[in-house]
Design a protein that fits this description.
The complex is a heterodimer.
Chain A lengths: L2 H20 L2 H22 L5 H19 L4 H13 L15 H9 L6 H11 L5 H7 L4 H17 L12 H20 L10 H17 L5 H13 L25 H16 L5 H13 L9 H14 L3 H14 L2 H14 L7 H12 L3 H14 L3 H13 L4
Chain B lengths: L1 E8 L1 H5 L3 H20 L3 E6 L7 E6 L2 E6 L8 E9 L3 H10 L7 E6 L4
Classes of the chains: A mainly alpha, B alpha+beta.
Chain lengths: 409, 115
């Protein structure tokens, strides 16, 4: 039994149901940890139960009830929990796959509640739904572990003290709440697609999770175009998952990927969703990014790609959603559509304007354009700078390989 | 659960209302107060006199210091409050959004500490 894998795959599902049953984030987390501890002790000797998820929920719930019986400070809480538990009381075996399909959606809406700061919303969702550790989240936000754990503690305290409800919002509030929820879903996808730590570049289950949540959002808001654009974007990115890494886990960049490995069905669905979103009037960042992804996905070769249109879409994206990552992508698209020199000029402008001392994508993009120009010495220096900043093992191996491939000067 | 809805706004906006506007505003508040009272969520409410009437009291080293004016000079002033019963923050936010001042000033939603 691979406990790390179990934790990664199940903790979000289990925790979201426990939070609903117990009505308390901290208690749910604590009891889940205790249930894991029992599992670690029992399963290796007795064998894992047929349904580990059901076992974890039921064990954690019993632990919570024991705790509440023991601890009289929880007297009031106990009545509430007894109600929640009674309303769903059923044999442990019934905690099956489709048991509470809405629990994670409830949790998403609670975690992305506008009464929480955006950074807290994202951190909380990654922590509770995706089961990422404080350490992993802090790294993807470029803040210290202490800052991140403080952020999570404060967010959970506010949910409790202000009584932020654990429910799907009222219909009139849904559009606003949806924007926040979509952002969170997209960030989950990115966490899976470009994992900030660890060996596996593609954390398949996180991407699948985000796509599943994207589908639920589309179902819930069939008249909204933006969730379709988001789902389309995620599917189009995900369609390349098998082509992005080699057998030994190395990163393969877009123009070197074997396009026969791209998932045709995901491309078809993603492109159709993107077109439908655009027809539905979607002009937001997801629709623009999905359009870019669709142009890549439907090009026969890297050379055939419609780079001028991609550069124009990045410029439009930059106007609605300015960010250094998008600006780097725009510069690269301009380099492809016109000349590497023009792309380099845009990177220079970005570097002189912003303080981006820890942003590895900038020297990495610069290195690639210098390589294309045959300026090996300068390219080597830029690769070394990117290497010093990149934390993802797969990206680091890619950068090292590129550096080694440069012709010696 | 109880929430205090604190109504903030620029007092000058209030002073500059024409008698007709002022009457319309009072009527709106009257209507809101009536509705919320009928729903059973109203626990208390008051309008405050302008901050010009405020006095701030501090005790330092056992000595009481009294000064004129509010504790902090801010762009928006506390003008009144509603104490409401709401099942959760979402309901409190919905009530806060119905207070007329939310359209030009702001309403701060504060949960009441449970002893």
């Amino acid at each position: 039994m691979d406990f790390e894998k179990l934790h990664r795959e199940e903790s979000g599902r289990v925790l979201s149901t426990l939070i609903r049953l117990l009505g308390d984030f901290d208690l749910a987390e604590e009891m889940l940890q205790e249930a894991y501890a029992v599992a670690l002790q029992k399963w290796p000797a007795e064998g894992a139960p047929a349904n580990p998820r059901a076992w974890l929920i039921s064990t954690a719930r019993h632990k919570a009830i024991d705790r509440l019986r023991r601890d009289h400070r929880f007297e009031m809480k106990r009545d509430e929990i007894a109600r929640n538990a009674d309303s769903t009381a059923r044999p442990a075996d019934d905690f099956g796959d489709a048991m509470f399909p809405d629990d994670r959606l409830r949790l998403i809406f609670t975690c992305s509640h506008p009464a929480l700061a955006t950074d807290a919303q994202v951190a909380l969702t990654l922590h509770t739904i995706c089961g990422l550790t404080t350490d992993e989240i802090s790294r993807s936000f470029l803040v210290s572990v202490a800052t991140m754990s403080q952020r999570l503690v404060r967010a959970k305290r506010k949910i409790r003290d202000a009584n932020i409800p654990y429910c799907i919002p009222a219909l009139e509030d849904l559009p606003d709440r949806l924007d926040a929820a979509m952002l969170v879903v997209y960030l989950i996808f990115n966490e899976g697609y470009l994992a900030s730590t660890g060996d596996a570049l593609v954390r398949r289950e996180l991407c699948a999770e985000a796509i599943r949540l994207g589908r639920v959002l589309c179902e819930l808001m069939p008249r909204e175009a933006e969730p379709r654009a988001l789902l389309g974007l995620m599917l189009l990115h995900d369609s390349r998952c098998d082509a992005r890494t080699s057998a030994d886990g190395d990163l393969i960049v877009l123009d070197e990927q074997d396009r026969t490995l791209w998932h045709a069905e995901q491309i078809r669905e993603g492109t159709a969703l993107t077109e439908s979103a655009l027809r539905g009037g979607s002009k937001g960042p997801y629709a623009l990014q999905a359009s870019i992804a669709a142009l890549h996905a439907n090009a026969q070769t890297a050379r055939d790609t419609d780079w001028p249109q991609i550069a124009a879409l990045y410029a439009a994206l930059l106007a609605v959603n300015p960010s250094p990552v998008i600006e780097v992508n725009w510069a690269v698209a301009v380099a492809m559509a016109r000349t590497p020199d023009q792309g380099l000029a845009l990177l220079d402008k970005l570097e002189s304007r912003e303080k981006l001392s820890e942003f590895h994508l900038l020297p990495a993009a610069r290195a690639d354009l210098l390589r294309r120009l045959g300026k090996s010495a300068e390219a080597a220096e830029a690769y070394r700078r990117a290497l010093a900043l990149a934390t993802n093992d797969v990206e680091r191996r890619f950068l090292r390989r590129r550096l080694a491939q440069l012709p010696t000067q | 659960m109880q929430y205090l809805l604190l109504i903030y706004g620029q007092e000058s906006d209030w002073f500059n209302l024409t008698p007709t506007q002022s009457a319309a505003m009072q009527q709106e508040y009257g209507q809101f107060s009536k509705e919320i009272a009928e729903s059973g969520k109203h626990l208390g409410s008051n309008r405050l006199t302008p901050v010009a009437s405020a006095t701030t009291v501090r005790v330092r080293d056992g000595k009481r210091v009294v000064t004129d004016g509010p504790f902090a000079e801010t762009k928006e002033q506390l003008g009144g409050y509603y104490l409401v019963e709401a099942k959760d923050l979402d309901e409190a936010i919905t009530l806060a959004g119905r207070i007329p001042a939310a359209r030009h000033g702001s309403v701060e939603v504060r949960p009441i500490f449970k002893m």
